Amino acid sequence: MGAFLDKPLTEKLLESGEGNGLKYGVASMQGWRLEMEDAHMAKTQLGEGELKNWSYFAVFDGHAGAGVSKHCASHLLEAIMATDEFQEDTKKGIHNGFLELDNQMRSLPELSSGEDRSGTTAVCAFISPRLIYIANCGDSRAVLCRQGEPVFSTQDHKPGLPTELDRIVKAGGSVMISRVNGSLAVSRALGDYDYKNVEGRGPCEQLVSPEPDIFVRDRDDKQDEFLVLACDGVWDVMSNEDLCQYIHNRLLVTENLNEVTSQVIDTCLYKGSRDNMSIVLVVFPGAPTPTAEAIEAEKELDATIERRIREIVQQENDIEWGNLVMKLKALGLEGLPPGGGLASKGTLMMKIYSELCPKQADSVIIIDSFPRN
Ligand code: MN
To answer: How many angstroms separate the CA atoms of 309 and 75, rounded?
Structure first.
Protein backbone atom coordinates (compact mmCIF):
# COMPACT_ATOMS: atom_id res chain seq x y z
CA MET A 1 0.00 0.00 0.00
CA GLY A 2 1.04 3.57 0.26
CA ALA A 3 2.72 6.02 -2.02
CA PHE A 4 5.47 5.76 -4.56
CA LEU A 5 8.46 7.86 -5.56
CA ASP A 6 8.54 9.67 -8.92
CA LYS A 7 11.63 7.68 -9.82
CA PRO A 8 12.86 4.45 -8.26
CA LEU A 9 15.90 4.50 -5.98
CA THR A 10 18.04 1.99 -7.81
CA GLU A 11 21.12 1.97 -5.61
CA LYS A 12 21.75 -1.53 -4.36
CA LEU A 13 23.07 -2.86 -1.12
CA LEU A 14 25.35 -5.80 -1.93
CA GLU A 15 26.96 -8.31 0.35
CA SER A 16 28.68 -11.64 -0.15
CA GLY A 17 30.69 -14.25 1.69
CA GLU A 18 31.47 -17.90 2.11
CA GLY A 19 31.93 -20.51 4.78
CA ASN A 20 31.09 -24.13 5.57
CA GLY A 21 31.37 -25.00 1.87
CA LEU A 22 28.62 -22.51 1.01
CA LYS A 23 28.84 -19.27 -0.92
CA TYR A 24 26.23 -16.54 -0.57
CA GLY A 25 25.30 -13.28 -2.23
CA VAL A 26 22.79 -10.67 -1.08
CA ALA A 27 21.23 -7.77 -2.94
CA SER A 28 18.52 -5.34 -1.94
CA MET A 29 17.00 -2.21 -3.44
CA GLN A 30 14.47 0.32 -2.20
CA GLY A 31 12.94 0.70 -5.67
CA TRP A 32 9.73 2.72 -6.03
CA ARG A 33 8.74 2.79 -2.37
CA LEU A 34 9.11 5.84 -0.16
CA GLU A 35 11.01 3.83 2.41
CA MET A 36 13.23 0.78 2.61
CA GLU A 37 11.58 -1.63 5.04
CA ASP A 38 13.31 -4.89 4.06
CA ALA A 39 16.17 -6.30 6.12
CA HIS A 40 18.29 -9.44 5.98
CA MET A 41 21.00 -11.43 7.74
CA ALA A 42 23.62 -13.90 6.53
CA LYS A 43 26.07 -15.69 8.81
CA THR A 44 28.26 -18.76 8.57
CA GLN A 45 29.76 -20.45 11.65
CA LEU A 46 27.14 -20.00 14.31
CA GLY A 47 29.26 -20.87 17.32
CA GLU A 48 31.71 -23.30 18.79
CA GLY A 49 31.91 -27.06 18.31
CA GLU A 50 29.28 -28.53 16.02
CA LEU A 51 27.69 -25.09 15.49
CA LYS A 52 30.82 -23.97 13.70
CA ASN A 53 29.56 -25.96 10.73
CA TRP A 54 26.12 -24.36 10.78
CA SER A 55 25.00 -21.31 8.78
CA TYR A 56 22.00 -18.99 8.95
CA PHE A 57 20.31 -16.84 6.32
CA ALA A 58 17.18 -14.69 6.58
CA VAL A 59 15.02 -12.13 4.79
CA PHE A 60 12.54 -9.80 6.51
CA ASP A 61 9.95 -7.70 4.68
CA GLY A 62 8.70 -4.95 6.94
CA HIS A 63 5.45 -3.01 6.68
CA ALA A 64 4.24 0.19 8.37
CA GLY A 65 7.86 1.05 9.10
CA ALA A 66 11.26 -0.62 9.34
CA GLY A 67 11.51 -0.87 13.14
CA VAL A 68 10.44 -4.48 13.56
CA SER A 69 12.13 -5.83 10.42
CA LYS A 70 15.46 -4.28 11.47
CA HIS A 71 15.14 -5.55 15.01
CA CYS A 72 14.36 -9.07 13.79
CA ALA A 73 17.32 -9.07 11.39
CA SER A 74 19.57 -8.29 14.35
CA HIS A 75 17.95 -10.51 16.96
CA LEU A 76 16.03 -13.49 15.54
CA LEU A 77 19.13 -15.69 15.33
CA GLU A 78 20.14 -15.09 18.94
CA ALA A 79 16.54 -15.55 20.11
CA ILE A 80 16.42 -18.96 18.42
CA MET A 81 19.87 -20.02 19.62
CA ALA A 82 19.06 -18.93 23.17
CA THR A 83 16.15 -21.36 23.46
CA ASP A 84 16.69 -24.46 25.62
CA GLU A 85 15.48 -26.62 22.77
CA PHE A 86 17.72 -25.44 19.92
CA GLN A 87 20.61 -27.88 20.44
CA GLU A 88 18.45 -30.97 21.06
CA ASP A 89 15.43 -30.31 18.86
CA THR A 90 16.29 -27.67 16.29
CA LYS A 91 12.78 -27.48 14.86
CA LYS A 92 11.30 -26.76 18.26
CA GLY A 93 14.05 -24.25 19.01
CA ILE A 94 13.29 -22.32 15.83
CA HIS A 95 9.56 -22.35 16.60
CA ASN A 96 10.01 -21.16 20.17
CA GLY A 97 12.62 -18.57 19.15
CA PHE A 98 10.11 -16.89 16.81
CA LEU A 99 7.48 -16.76 19.57
CA GLU A 100 9.98 -15.66 22.20
CA LEU A 101 11.29 -12.77 20.06
CA ASP A 102 7.75 -11.66 19.20
CA ASN A 103 6.91 -11.64 22.88
CA GLN A 104 10.08 -9.77 23.89
CA MET A 105 9.75 -7.08 21.20
CA ARG A 106 6.32 -6.18 22.47
CA SER A 107 7.83 -4.51 25.52
CA LEU A 108 10.35 -2.39 23.61
CA PRO A 109 9.48 1.27 24.36
CA GLU A 110 8.58 2.35 20.80
CA LEU A 111 6.43 -0.72 20.33
CA SER A 112 4.68 -0.79 23.70
CA SER A 113 3.85 2.91 23.41
CA GLY A 114 2.29 2.30 20.00
CA GLU A 115 4.60 4.85 18.41
CA ASP A 116 5.97 2.05 16.21
CA ARG A 117 3.18 -0.12 14.78
CA SER A 118 5.32 -1.95 12.28
CA GLY A 119 5.51 -5.64 11.54
CA THR A 120 7.55 -7.95 9.38
CA THR A 121 7.52 -11.24 7.53
CA ALA A 122 10.42 -13.57 8.21
CA VAL A 123 11.85 -16.40 6.17
CA CYS A 124 15.04 -18.03 7.39
CA ALA A 125 17.21 -21.08 6.85
CA PHE A 126 19.61 -22.97 9.07
CA ILE A 127 22.02 -25.12 7.09
CA SER A 128 23.93 -27.87 8.86
CA PRO A 129 26.32 -30.31 7.18
CA ARG A 130 23.44 -32.77 6.73
CA LEU A 131 20.18 -30.83 6.87
CA ILE A 132 18.39 -27.68 5.71
CA TYR A 133 15.85 -26.17 8.12
CA ILE A 134 13.56 -23.57 6.59
CA ALA A 135 11.16 -21.47 8.65
CA ASN A 136 8.56 -19.16 7.17
CA CYS A 137 6.22 -16.61 8.71
CA GLY A 138 4.39 -14.40 6.19
CA ASP A 139 4.71 -13.99 2.45
CA SER A 140 8.43 -13.86 1.85
CA ARG A 141 9.50 -17.16 0.32
CA ALA A 142 12.29 -19.73 0.25
CA VAL A 143 12.85 -21.89 -2.83
CA LEU A 144 15.34 -24.75 -3.20
CA CYS A 145 16.65 -25.44 -6.68
CA ARG A 146 17.99 -28.66 -8.17
CA GLN A 147 19.00 -28.89 -11.82
CA GLY A 148 17.55 -25.52 -12.63
CA GLU A 149 14.11 -26.41 -11.24
CA PRO A 150 12.38 -25.60 -7.95
CA VAL A 151 12.04 -28.77 -5.85
CA PHE A 152 10.78 -27.12 -2.68
CA SER A 153 9.04 -23.87 -1.81
CA THR A 154 7.52 -22.44 1.35
CA GLN A 155 3.81 -21.59 1.32
CA ASP A 156 2.98 -17.87 1.58
CA HIS A 157 0.73 -17.00 4.53
CA LYS A 158 -2.06 -15.09 2.83
CA PRO A 159 -5.22 -14.23 4.80
CA GLY A 160 -7.44 -16.10 2.34
CA LEU A 161 -5.88 -19.54 2.99
CA PRO A 162 -8.39 -21.84 4.77
CA THR A 163 -6.27 -22.36 7.91
CA GLU A 164 -5.48 -18.65 8.15
CA LEU A 165 -9.06 -17.56 7.50
CA ASP A 166 -10.28 -19.99 10.14
CA ARG A 167 -7.94 -18.56 12.79
CA ILE A 168 -8.78 -14.96 11.83
CA VAL A 169 -12.54 -15.56 12.05
CA LYS A 170 -12.21 -17.42 15.38
CA ALA A 171 -10.28 -14.40 16.69
CA GLY A 172 -13.23 -12.18 15.73
CA GLY A 173 -11.74 -10.74 12.59
CA SER A 174 -12.56 -10.89 8.91
CA VAL A 175 -10.84 -11.04 5.57
CA MET A 176 -11.78 -8.40 3.01
CA ILE A 177 -9.99 -7.62 -0.26
CA SER A 178 -7.61 -10.47 0.72
CA ARG A 179 -6.49 -8.54 3.79
CA VAL A 180 -6.88 -9.11 7.53
CA ASN A 181 -9.71 -6.79 8.58
CA GLY A 182 -9.41 -5.25 5.12
CA SER A 183 -6.02 -3.86 5.98
CA LEU A 184 -3.04 -6.21 6.41
CA ALA A 185 -1.97 -8.34 3.43
CA VAL A 186 -0.19 -11.05 5.45
CA SER A 187 -1.74 -13.30 8.07
CA ARG A 188 1.46 -14.18 9.92
CA ALA A 189 4.11 -11.74 10.99
CA LEU A 190 6.35 -10.64 13.81
CA GLY A 191 5.27 -7.36 15.39
CA ASP A 192 1.88 -6.00 14.23
CA TYR A 193 0.74 -5.90 17.85
CA ASP A 194 -2.47 -4.07 16.91
CA TYR A 195 -3.59 -7.46 15.58
CA LYS A 196 -2.51 -9.45 18.63
CA ASN A 197 -4.77 -8.20 21.39
CA VAL A 198 -7.71 -10.60 21.38
CA GLU A 199 -8.31 -11.62 24.97
CA GLY A 200 -8.43 -15.26 25.95
CA ARG A 201 -6.53 -16.38 22.89
CA GLY A 202 -2.94 -17.55 22.80
CA PRO A 203 -0.16 -15.94 20.73
CA CYS A 204 -0.75 -18.31 17.81
CA GLU A 205 -4.55 -17.83 17.84
CA GLN A 206 -4.58 -14.11 17.18
CA LEU A 207 -5.63 -12.24 14.02
CA VAL A 208 -1.98 -12.26 13.03
CA SER A 209 0.23 -15.09 14.27
CA PRO A 210 4.02 -15.13 14.75
CA GLU A 211 4.13 -18.91 14.31
CA PRO A 212 6.47 -20.13 11.55
CA ASP A 213 5.94 -23.16 9.35
CA ILE A 214 9.12 -25.19 9.60
CA PHE A 215 10.44 -27.64 7.02
CA VAL A 216 13.42 -29.96 7.24
CA ARG A 217 15.17 -31.46 4.24
CA ASP A 218 18.19 -33.68 3.81
CA ARG A 219 20.99 -32.05 1.91
CA ASP A 220 22.10 -33.63 -1.31
CA ASP A 221 25.38 -32.03 -2.25
CA LYS A 222 25.36 -33.65 -5.68
CA GLN A 223 21.96 -32.31 -6.70
CA ASP A 224 21.25 -29.22 -4.57
CA GLU A 225 22.22 -26.15 -6.55
CA PHE A 226 21.05 -23.20 -4.50
CA LEU A 227 18.55 -21.87 -2.02
CA VAL A 228 16.87 -18.51 -2.57
CA LEU A 229 15.26 -16.43 0.15
CA ALA A 230 13.42 -13.39 -1.21
CA CYS A 231 10.59 -11.01 -0.40
CA ASP A 232 7.42 -10.53 -2.45
CA GLY A 233 9.00 -7.64 -4.37
CA VAL A 234 10.87 -10.38 -6.23
CA TRP A 235 8.18 -13.11 -6.31
CA ASP A 236 5.49 -10.67 -7.52
CA VAL A 237 7.21 -10.53 -10.90
CA MET A 238 9.10 -13.83 -11.11
CA SER A 239 7.69 -17.31 -10.53
CA ASN A 240 9.68 -19.96 -8.65
CA GLU A 241 10.45 -21.59 -12.02
CA ASP A 242 11.54 -18.30 -13.60
CA LEU A 243 13.89 -17.43 -10.80
CA CYS A 244 15.46 -20.91 -10.58
CA GLN A 245 16.04 -21.01 -14.33
CA TYR A 246 17.42 -17.49 -14.39
CA ILE A 247 19.86 -17.99 -11.50
CA HIS A 248 20.95 -21.39 -12.88
CA ASN A 249 21.67 -19.63 -16.17
CA ARG A 250 23.56 -16.77 -14.48
CA LEU A 251 25.78 -19.23 -12.60
CA LEU A 252 26.92 -20.53 -15.98
CA VAL A 253 28.32 -17.11 -16.89
CA THR A 254 29.74 -15.78 -13.61
CA GLU A 255 30.87 -16.98 -10.21
CA ASN A 256 30.46 -13.51 -8.75
CA LEU A 257 27.30 -13.92 -6.65
CA ASN A 258 26.85 -10.18 -6.28
CA GLU A 259 26.66 -9.92 -10.02
CA VAL A 260 23.98 -12.63 -9.97
CA THR A 261 21.86 -11.15 -7.18
CA SER A 262 22.29 -7.67 -8.61
CA GLN A 263 21.02 -8.84 -11.99
CA VAL A 264 18.03 -10.54 -10.37
CA ILE A 265 17.00 -7.30 -8.65
CA ASP A 266 17.48 -5.22 -11.83
CA THR A 267 15.47 -7.77 -13.80
CA CYS A 268 12.63 -7.56 -11.26
CA LEU A 269 12.64 -3.77 -11.51
CA TYR A 270 12.37 -3.95 -15.31
CA LYS A 271 9.67 -6.60 -14.98
CA GLY A 272 7.67 -3.98 -13.11
CA SER A 273 8.15 -4.63 -9.39
CA ARG A 274 7.13 -1.56 -7.41
CA ASP A 275 8.10 -2.91 -4.00
CA ASN A 276 11.29 -3.02 -1.95
CA MET A 277 13.31 -6.00 -3.18
CA SER A 278 15.65 -8.31 -1.28
CA ILE A 279 17.28 -11.58 -2.19
CA VAL A 280 19.67 -13.88 -0.35
CA LEU A 281 21.20 -16.52 -2.61
CA VAL A 282 22.95 -19.49 -0.98
CA VAL A 283 24.97 -21.63 -3.37
CA PHE A 284 25.72 -25.30 -2.62
CA PRO A 285 28.73 -27.29 -3.87
CA GLY A 286 26.53 -28.91 -6.55
CA ALA A 287 25.72 -25.61 -8.30
CA PRO A 288 26.65 -25.02 -11.94
CA THR A 289 29.91 -23.17 -12.61
CA PRO A 290 30.80 -20.90 -15.53
CA THR A 291 31.54 -22.48 -18.91
CA ALA A 292 33.51 -20.86 -21.72
CA GLU A 293 30.64 -21.65 -24.07
CA ALA A 294 28.00 -19.88 -21.97
CA ILE A 295 30.25 -16.87 -21.42
CA GLU A 296 30.88 -16.58 -25.15
CA ALA A 297 27.16 -16.89 -25.94
CA GLU A 298 26.37 -14.14 -23.43
CA LYS A 299 28.93 -11.81 -25.02
CA GLU A 300 27.45 -12.45 -28.44
CA LEU A 301 23.94 -11.82 -27.17
CA ASP A 302 24.95 -8.50 -25.61
CA ALA A 303 26.73 -7.47 -28.81
CA THR A 304 23.65 -8.37 -30.86
CA ILE A 305 21.41 -6.31 -28.58
CA GLU A 306 23.72 -3.32 -28.87
CA ARG A 307 23.86 -3.63 -32.67
CA ARG A 308 20.09 -3.93 -32.95
CA ILE A 309 19.47 -0.89 -30.78
CA ARG A 310 21.90 1.15 -32.87
CA GLU A 311 20.09 0.07 -36.04
CA ILE A 312 16.69 0.93 -34.64
CA VAL A 313 17.79 4.33 -33.36
CA GLN A 314 19.44 5.09 -36.70
CA GLN A 315 16.10 4.58 -38.43
CA GLU A 316 14.13 6.50 -35.85
CA ASN A 317 16.41 8.75 -33.89
CA ASP A 318 13.88 10.14 -31.43
CA ILE A 319 12.36 6.76 -30.64
CA GLU A 320 10.65 6.43 -27.28
CA TRP A 321 11.92 3.83 -24.83
CA GLY A 322 8.65 1.89 -24.85
CA ASN A 323 8.72 1.63 -28.64
CA LEU A 324 12.34 0.56 -28.60
CA VAL A 325 11.48 -2.24 -26.19
CA MET A 326 8.57 -3.34 -28.40
CA LYS A 327 10.76 -3.35 -31.49
CA LEU A 328 13.47 -5.38 -29.83
CA LYS A 329 10.85 -7.76 -28.52
CA ALA A 330 9.38 -8.18 -32.00
CA LEU A 331 12.81 -9.24 -33.27
CA GLY A 332 12.47 -12.40 -31.18
CA LEU A 333 16.12 -12.37 -30.12
CA GLU A 334 17.49 -15.85 -29.55
CA GLY A 335 19.39 -16.94 -26.48
CA LEU A 336 17.81 -14.59 -23.94
CA PRO A 337 18.33 -15.95 -20.42
CA PRO A 338 15.47 -18.33 -19.53
CA GLY A 339 13.30 -16.92 -16.74
CA GLY A 340 14.79 -13.46 -17.23
CA GLY A 341 13.86 -12.78 -20.84
CA LEU A 342 14.33 -9.38 -22.45
CA ALA A 343 13.75 -7.62 -19.10
CA SER A 344 17.00 -9.14 -17.82
CA LYS A 345 18.73 -7.07 -20.50
CA GLY A 346 16.93 -3.89 -19.43
CA THR A 347 19.99 -2.41 -17.74
CA LEU A 348 22.17 -3.02 -20.80
CA MET A 349 19.49 -1.66 -23.12
CA MET A 350 19.04 1.46 -20.99
CA LYS A 351 22.81 2.05 -20.95
CA ILE A 352 22.97 2.01 -24.75
CA TYR A 353 19.76 4.04 -25.11
CA SER A 354 21.10 6.70 -22.72
CA GLU A 355 24.19 7.03 -24.88
CA LEU A 356 22.26 7.33 -28.13
CA CYS A 357 19.22 9.27 -26.93
CA PRO A 358 20.26 11.05 -23.73
CA LYS A 359 17.31 13.47 -23.74
CA GLN A 360 14.62 10.83 -24.08
CA ALA A 361 16.37 8.46 -21.70
CA ASP A 362 16.30 11.10 -19.02
CA SER A 363 12.54 11.18 -18.87
CA VAL A 364 11.89 7.47 -19.22
CA ILE A 365 9.56 5.86 -16.76
CA ILE A 366 10.54 2.23 -16.94
CA ILE A 367 7.53 0.88 -15.12
CA ASP A 368 5.67 -1.69 -17.18
CA SER A 369 7.70 -0.99 -20.29
CA PHE A 370 8.44 -4.71 -20.56
CA PRO A 371 5.37 -6.80 -21.22
CA ARG A 372 5.44 -9.90 -18.99
CA ASN A 373 6.54 -12.97 -20.84
MN1 MN B 1 7.22 -6.45 0.14
So the answer is: 49
